Amino acid sequence: MAVKALLIDLSGTIHIDSKAIPGAVEAIHKLRASKVPFRFATNTTKTSSRKLVDKLNAMGFDVNENEVFTSLSACRDRVSHLRPLLLMEDAALDEFKGINTHDPNAVVVGLAPSKFCYQYMNEAFRLLINNPSIPLIAVHKAKYFADKDEKLSMGPGGFVEALEYATGTKATIVGKPTKSFFELALKQIGMLDNPENVAMIGDDINNDLGGGALELGLHRYLVRTGKYRSGDEDKADNKKLVVYDSIVEAIENILKSNT
């Protein structure tokens, strides 16, 4: 079945920190010129959506803000009626402007290396253990990510599980790979009713290409960049799974098949 639209991961797929994957800038420009609908669907949580767009544009991607759908923005919508304790990097707090954080009645965890220390983790623990009805919300539970030195670093998953273990509270996941996250992204490109015609491209076999992507029947394109490790493709369901060396090869093949 033809691929008529794309969802594309960001970190590890088109860039690593402030460095674009070789050829990725040109590939995204070709994709945009082809008029194939797409969204960048990302779990990036270290920085706000606005700052993320600025970062991508500094690399030459010429991204419009409406082309980026982040788990952070989905999380903001999820907690807009709550007063969250935000374990977030300062650069990500911009996303939550206008939300009351006084006297917290929820704990929200993103990728926050500067906050993953005993002081902040214990503050979250005490809030949860003393108020069993308070929700624990994780933007995502990735095990690791490709850091700026192109080596793997711990993701928020282990820290979320530490809070789950210590408090007995199960976290609600907002971002990839939840079905609801993919459905919101599909809705933005008008493909909610035709997910079988959409491909998700990413470097993480579980968070990008598992869960909701598999459940919705998306084409799943794994790229050998970022957090990819040899043999990742053997760890998951191979339904509609194709492996490419990079985003460049993936986009080239999609555009060729559509001509």
From TrEMBL:
InterPro entries cross-referenced by the UniProt entry: HAD-like_sf (IPR036412), HAD-SF_hydro_IIA (IPR006357), HAD_sf (IPR023214), LHPP/HDHD2 (IPR006355), STAS_dom (IPR002645)
Gene Ontology cellular-component terms listed: cytoplasm; nucleus
Keywords: Cytoplasm, Hydrolase, Magnesium, Metal-binding, Nucleus
PROSITE patterns the UniProt entry points to: STAS
Cofactor dependency: Mg(2+)
Subcellular location(s) per record: Cytoplasm; Nucleus
Predominant place of localization: cytoplasm
A Pfam family matched in the record: Hydrolase_like
UniProt GO molecular function: metal ion binding; phosphatase activity; pyrophosphatase activity
Domain STAS: 1-79
Listed Gene3D superfamilies: HAD superfamily/HAD-like
Chain's role: Phosphatase that hydrolyzes imidodiphosphate, 3-phosphohistidine and 6-phospholysine. Has broad substrate specificity and can also hydrolyze inorganic diphosphate, but with lower efficiency.
Family (UniProt): Belongs to the HAD-like hydrolase superfamily.
Protein name: Haloacid dehalogenase-like hydrolase domain-containing protein 2
Species, as recorded: Circinella minor
Origin organism lineage: Eukaryota, Fungi, Fungi incertae sedis, Mucoromycota, Mucoromycotina
